[in-house]
Amino acid sequence: MKQLTTQPFAKDFVFLEGPRWHDGKLWVSDMFGLTVYTLTAAGQRQEFAKFPNRPSGINFLPDGSVVIVSMADRKLMKVKNGELSLYADLSGVLKYDINDCVCAPNGNIYVGTFGYDVFAHETPQPATLTLVKPDGTVKTVADQVHFPNGAVVANNGKTLVVAETFVGKLTAFDIQADGSLTNRRTFADLAPYTPDGICLDAEGAIWVAAFEQGEFLRVREGGEITHKIVTGGRRAVACNLGGADGKTLYCLIYDGNLEDIPKGARNALIETAQVEVAAAGSP
Question: Which residues of 175-201 are buried (b: 16+ CB within 10 A; e: fewer)?
Answer without folding.
Answer: beeebebeeeeebbebeebbbbbbbbb
